[in-house]
Structures are given as structure tokens and as C-alpha cells.
């Protein structure tokens, strides 16, 4: 039932974006910077060298520095190479706001002067049509120029840069300019690294959302350049730094060496962020980075499936572990909210698909069930039900009690034979596929999305697969034909492919093999 996973895969990028909100840079007590949110396909650059004194042993927030440049030896541009390169011709720079304003003002004055000139009036008397057309063209050009100025100000002089000291903001403007406007990877890398060096020189907290956001932006840029290995290295470096900070913080809290003024301040107004609040922010960002790393490692350009699986396992265990800790211990001073149910559900679902890819459907099932409990989107509920149906249909035969899902089955399994056990799994698969079909048809109006239609088509194909496995070939053919008709109606190629494959298998004698 490959299409069941296909519909979920169409949903996963949105989930990834929801998760990325936790990893998006933001100023303390302020909203996230838009440019970093938009670029957040999660990634980052070199580690900060060494490890300074732990932030907890002082009364203020210091930082860790990692031991080596993440990009050293990479396939993209190298930091040492950039610094040691011979002097290049002076590159074009982003225009300053004074230059932009002067150019626009001069153009506007010229247009007004032209409108007042005697020559224009004389030309209008002799050739009114041509003059009107020319004026319309000039006005249109001026409007386009003004719009371009607005875009330039939005791109290079927007609010996000004011969160940094001016030297850092200037380096970031140049980095973005050479990343997107006048692409030059070597110069872009040079200015990204200059921005990080200035952050270090100016003693900015390397675990602030602003500084981590620069590293994330660099990794996103590397991914855009298809330098996937370097993008993964930069994210791994940032993830390692974040995890090390959390470990040291927890160790010092346990030993009682963490400063009380940052753990439980008597006057909250004097502390912008408690250590527990900072831990929540960094840990949540670590989970989001880990999910993004799993996405990178599973990309066809890398195919590091085991690493992708490890990152997803860590993300899910960390997310659920923190939820359990808060339930058992309660909230600490200034700790703030944890991941949303949608974000946790997205991580659970991604790990479920990772187990599916390893044909470990018995391990995927509990994850899909938990994701279903957390899901609040009507159409995606149907997608998760299809995933559950798929996993039940392909569930391996295990000893009684060994399958995590055995406790969720309706009938007792103590005396079940292998045939009875298989039949019960297929019956469960049929129920969940039917439920998916029903739930996909319910949402109407604004609540109904393309995901509902696709989930409905997939459920029909799944029902056809299950019918073929139970030997009901007539019903299987009927379900496949309905799935094809609906998939063609909504333009859903994956549904057509799955159902047509099922029909071909029926015509070749023997039941259809259910696919994940």
C-alpha cells in the first residue's frame, strides 16, 4: 500500500515547517526574524572553537565553542581558503539606503521637470497621442522602480538586521546579497563566517536564537547549493553544541553548582531568561535540527538511512521524554511551553515511516497510533488511518505478546494460531482502511483539503489490496476501479499507480502483495 505513505509524505514538509518554528531564530521576548524563518530548512556553519567556561558557573550567559571548522575539508568553499585567497577585485556591494533614495529622488525630479517643460507642452500640442503614451510609460517605469526600492529595503534593510550590532548586520547583508542577488559562493561564505567571527568578538551568546540562526541559515544555503554533506556537517556541529550545553546545565543543576539567580530569580524582571527557559529553547531547537538532519540523510543524494533513523529516534525519545519529565516534576521557573502536539505528532509519524522503510511494521504501528492521538487536522487523521491500515496488513507474525500492538487488538490472542493471527491483522487493516475512507469523506467547506481527497483514493486502493490478500478478488477489482476513477478525477497520480498495479497483479493470478 505504497500510496498510503505517499499521501503522508506530501504532508510531511508542512510538519517539518511546524517543527522548524522551534528552531527558528528569535530575539528573547520578541517574535522570530522573518528572513530566518523563511530560510529554515534547518542547517548551519562551522562550530565555535574550544569550550569556554560553562555558562552556569558564572552569573551570566557565556558560551561554548566547538573545536573545529565544520566546513574544513568540505566540497564547498573552505574558510581557510577564503581567508588565504589572493586579493580579488572589489566586488559589487548591496546599495546603501542613501544611494537608493538619491537615485529615486533624482528620477522623480527629472520626471516632474519634464512634465513642466515648454518642450513637453509643445510636443503635446503637435503629437498628443505619442506624448500621452510616453508619459504613461514613464509613470509605469517610476512605479516599478519604486516597487523595486521597497523590495530592496525589505530584503537588505528589514527589521531582522536591527537585532544585530551594525557590523554583524552589514556582514549578513553582504552574505545574503552574494547568496541570492548576485550569487558568489566564495564571497557569500566569507561574509557568513565574518558575521560569526564578529558575534564571537562582540561576546554575543552563541546559543541565542540570533547567532544559532546564522549557522542555520548557512546550512540552508549549503543545501540550496546541493552541498548536502556540508549542510549536514554544519547541522551536526550545531546539534552537538546544543546537546553539550543541555548536558552541562543538567549536570550543574544536579550538583547544585548552577547559579540560583538564573535558576530561580527572586526578581524575574532582572532576568530575561532563566536557565530552565534557555534549556527549553535549546532542547526544542535540538529536536527540530535532529528531524531536519533525518530529512537530509534520507535524501536521495545522501542515502544515509541508518543515520536518518538514529536522528529520528533521538528526536522522538527526547520530545516524549521531556513531556514525561514535565508531567512528573511539573514546570520549573521560567521553563515555558514545550513542543506542540502537531510538532510531536510530526516527529512520531516520520519515525513510523522510517520503521516502515525497514519493514518493521510492528514498530511503526505504535508510532502511528500515538501520532493519531495528537493529530487535530481532520484530513490528516484519514492519512494516519491509512498508514495504520498499511502497517496492519504487513504486520509480521510474532510470538504472542512480542508485538507492541497486541494489546490493542479486540480479541484475546493466547491460543491464536499463525493463520488466526494473520486473519486478525488483516481484519484490523480492513477496519482502519474503512475508517480512513469514512473520515476522508466527512470534512466539508474550508476544512476539506486536497489531502482528504487523496486519502479517500488511497483508502479505496488499500481496501483493494486487503481484499486480494484475503482472496476476495471480485471486491478487490471493484475497489481498485473505484480508486482509479477517483484518482483520475482529482489528478492524483500516486493513487492511479497503486490501483493499476493492483489490477495488474489480479490479472496475473494470485493475490496482490501489499506494499508499504
Explained architecture:
The chain has helices at residues 2-23, 34-39, 79-84, 97-116, 118-126, 128-156, 166-181, 185-201, 209-224, 228-255, 260-263, 275-297, 305-329, 341-357, 361-374, 378-393, 418-441, 450-469, 473-490, 493-507. The chain starts with a helix and ends in a 9-residue tail after the last helix. The chain is 67% helix and 0% strand. The longest helix has 29 residues, at 128-156. The radius of gyration is 29 Å and the shape is flat. It folds into two domains: 2-83 and 184-358, no CATH class; 380-507, Serine Threonine Protein Phosphatase 5, Tetratricopeptide repeat (Alpha Horseshoe). The protein is built from 20 helices and no strands. By secondary structure, it is an all-alpha fold.
Please give the structural blueprint:
Blueprint: H1 2-23, H2 34-39, H3 79-84, H4 97-116, H5 118-126, H6 128-156, H7 166-181, H8 185-201, H9 209-224, H10 228-255, H11 260-263, H12 275-297, H13 305-329, H14 341-357, H15 361-374, H16 378-393, H17 418-441, H18 450-469, H19 473-490, H20 493-507
Protein name: TPR domain-containing protein
Region (Disordered): 66-94
Keywords: Membrane, Transmembrane, Transmembrane helix
Amino acid at each position: 500500500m505504497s500510496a498510503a505513505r505517499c499521501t503522508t509524505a506530501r504532508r510531511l514538509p508542512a510538519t517539518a515547517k511546524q517543527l522548524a518554528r522551534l528552531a527558528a531564530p528569535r530575539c528573547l521576548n520578541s517574535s522570530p526574524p522573518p528572513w530566518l524563518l523563511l530560510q529554515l530548512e534547518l542547517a548551519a556553519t562551522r562550530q565555535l572553537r574550544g569550550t569556554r567556561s560553562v555558562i552556569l558557573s558564572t552569573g551570566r550567559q557565556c558560551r561554548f565553542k566547538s573545536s573545529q571548522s565544520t566546513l574544513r575539508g568540505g566540497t564547498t568553499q573552505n574558510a581557510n581558503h577564503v581567508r588565504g585567497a589572493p586579493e580579488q577585485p572589489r566586488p559589487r556591494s548591496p546599495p546603501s539606503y542613501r544611494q537608493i533614495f538619491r537615485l529615486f529622488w533624482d528620477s522623480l525630479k527629472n520626471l516632474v521637470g519634464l512634465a513642466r517643460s515648454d518642450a513637453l507642452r509643445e510636443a503635446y500640442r503637435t503629437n498628443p497621442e505619442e506624448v500621452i503614451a510616453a508619459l504613461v510609460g514613464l509613470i509605469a517605469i517610476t512605479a516599478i522602480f519604486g516597487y523595486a526600492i521597497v523590495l530592496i529595503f525589505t530584503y537588505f534593510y528589514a527589521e531582522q538586521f536591527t537585532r544585530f550590532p551594525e557590523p554583524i548586520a552589514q556582514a549578513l547583508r553582504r552574505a545574503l546579497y552574494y547568496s541570492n542577488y548576485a550569487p558568489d559562493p566564495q564571497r557569500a561564505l566569507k561574509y557568513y563566517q565574518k558575521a560569526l567571527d564578529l558575534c564571537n568578538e562582540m561576546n554575543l551568546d552563541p546559543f541565542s536564537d540570533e547567532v544559532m540562526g546564522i549557522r542555520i541559515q548557512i546550512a540552508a544555503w549549503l543545501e540550496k547549493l546541493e552541498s548536502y554533506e556540508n549542510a549536514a556537517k554544519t547541522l551536526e556541529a550545531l546539534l552537538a553544541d546544543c546537546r553539550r550545553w543541555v548536558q552541562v546545565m543538567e549536570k550543574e543543576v544536579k550538583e547544585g553548582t548552577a547559579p540560583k539567580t538564573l535558576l530561580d530569580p527572586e526578581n524575574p524582571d532582572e532576568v530575561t531568561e532563566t536557565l530552565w527557559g534557555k534549556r527549553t529553547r535549546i532542547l526544542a531547537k535540538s529536536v527540530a535540527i535532529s528531524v531536519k538532519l533525518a530529512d537530509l540523510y534520507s535524501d536521495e543524494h545522501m542515502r544515509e538511512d541508518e543515520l536518518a533513523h538514529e536522528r529520528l529516534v533521538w528526536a522522538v525519545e527526547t520530545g516524549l521524554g521531556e513531556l514525561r519529565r514535565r508531567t512528573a516534576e511539573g514546570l520549573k521557573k521560567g521553563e515555558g511551553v514545550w513542543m506542540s502536539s502537531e510538532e510531536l505528532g510530526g516527529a512520531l509519524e516520520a519515525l513510523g515511516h522510517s520503521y516502515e522503510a525497514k519493514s518493521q511494521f510492528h514498530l511503526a504501528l505504535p508510532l502511528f497510533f500515538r501520532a493519531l492521538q495528537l493529530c487535530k487536522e481532520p484530513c490528516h487523521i484519514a492519512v494516519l488511518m491509512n498508514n495504520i491500515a498499511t502497517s496492519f496488513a504487513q504486520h509480521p507474525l510474532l510470538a504472542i505478546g512480542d508485538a507492541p500492538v497486541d494489546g490493542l487488538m479486540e480479541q484475546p490472542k493466547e491460543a491464536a494460531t499463525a493463520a488466526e493471527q494473520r486473519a486478525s491483522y488483516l481484519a484490523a487493516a480492513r477496519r482502519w482502511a474503512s475508517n480512513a475512507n469514512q473520515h476522508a469523506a466527512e470534512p466539508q467547506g474550508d476544512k476539506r483539503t486536497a489531502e482528504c481527497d487523496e486519502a479517500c483514493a488511497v483508502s479505496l486502493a488499500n481496501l483493494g489490496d486487503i481484499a486480494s490478500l484475503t482472496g476476495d478478488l471480485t471486491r478487490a477489482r471493484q475497489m481498485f476501479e473505484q480508486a482509479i476513477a477517483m484518482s483520475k478525477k482529482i489528478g492524483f497520480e500516486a493513487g492511479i499507480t497503486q490501483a493499476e498495479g493492483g489490477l495488474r497483479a489480479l490479472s496475473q493470478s494470485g493475490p496482490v502483495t501489499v506494499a508499504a
